[in-house]
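User: Can you recover a sequence for this backbone? Please restate the input before giving your answer.

Assistant: Of course. Working from this structure:
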């Protein structure tokens, strides 16, 4: 065991079982652990711990911020996002934002990835800015999509507080260290009456509670695990009112979860790629294959593509929160 001094806090690095050592909740600082998830999808001694006091979940032990930076810096180009899936979801989200903020204005996307969301927002009349740490994604957004992107984290932004009408965080909050400090920085950027919109995996939905450590969204890059009530409480503490919540369920998540308990090896990722159109996430566009490797006849490809499209549409159907495993929050600053 060892202790590491980090800023003003002292961080405990676990080398044995968490039960033998004093482990502190990164959100509220208590040492009351309510449960741990069997870390089937995490390597080594990692697990997911849950705080009995505030309901926050976190990967334990946490990787260092430098480890996380190294990981993203060494991701091969094109691997961050699937264009087809993302655009379908993003266009619906833009409509929802437009309805809540009809006057448009300045929009900041934190963790803007390849820039698909910002491009759609720009077309819809928003004055857009992105911030993104991954160099390759920044280059792509700037050169291919002509977007204004600041490379780095939200702390690197050279802007005054309360200067954006909308701040969006698509699948970002679960990836960051010190989640409360991070969300405070983000909420400070929103102007009074403006919106903070975020999407995160829903650790209180039944897929998460059923599969626990086998759940699709338990992964090495997800450091934080959120329940609906935790997010609502944090947003309220930050002076926001949750105006809209959308819960959805990815069918892939069920396939992944049930596949992981089968006695034989089951290549879920390969199955999920079936019918995918040549996408930049699999490699350079001209090299991309529609099924991740196998040659198929045009008819079979068309049928697989149709099935895939139906699955994508089903993935966007709004469901009761207890069923969903992804959630979007639209929060307005008072
Ligand atoms: Zn806590």
């Amino acid at each position: 065991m060892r202790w590491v001094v980090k800023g003003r806090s002292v961080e405990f690095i676990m080398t044995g079982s968490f039960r033998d050592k004093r482990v502190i909740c990164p959100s509220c600082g208590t040492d009351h652990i309510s449960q741990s998830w069997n870390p089937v999808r995490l390597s080594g001694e990692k697990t997911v711990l849950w705080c009995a006091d505030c309901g926050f979940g976190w990967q334990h032990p946490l990787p260092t911020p430098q480890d996380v930076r190294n990981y993203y810096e060494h991701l091969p180009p094109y691997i961050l996002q699937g264009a087809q899936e993302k655009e379908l979801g993003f266009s619906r989200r833009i409509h929802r934002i437009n309805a809540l903020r009809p006057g448009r204005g300045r929009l900041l996307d934190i963790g803007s990835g390849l820039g698909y969301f910002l491009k759609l927002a720009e077309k819809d009349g928003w004055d857009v800015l992105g911030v993104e740490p991954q160099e390759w994604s920044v280059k792509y957004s700037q050169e291919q999509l002509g977007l204004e992107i600041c490379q780095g984290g939200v702390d690197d932004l050279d802007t005054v507080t309360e200067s954006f009408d909308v701040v969006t965080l698509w699948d970002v909050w679960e990836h960051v260290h010190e989640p409360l400090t991070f969300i405070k920085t983000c909420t400070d950027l929103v102007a009074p009456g403006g919106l903070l919109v975020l999407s995160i995996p829903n650790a209180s939905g039944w897929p998460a509670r059923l599969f626990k450590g086998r759940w699709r969204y338990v992964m090495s890059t997800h450091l934080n695990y959120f329940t609906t009530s935790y997010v609502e409480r944090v947003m309220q503490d930050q002076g926001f009112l949750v105006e809209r919540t959308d819960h959805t369920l990815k069918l892939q998540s069920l396939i992944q979860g049930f596949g992981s308990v089968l006695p034989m090896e089951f290549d879920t990722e390969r199955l999920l790629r079936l019918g995918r159109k040549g996408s930049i996430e699999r490699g350079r566009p001209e090299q991309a294959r529609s099924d991740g490797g196998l040659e198929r006849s045009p008819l079979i490809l068309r049928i697989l593509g149709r099935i895939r499209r139906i699955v994508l549409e089903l993935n966007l159907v709004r469901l009761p929160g207890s069923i969903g495993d992804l959630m979007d929050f639209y929060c307005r600053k008072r």
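That completes the design. The longest helix spans residues 83-100.
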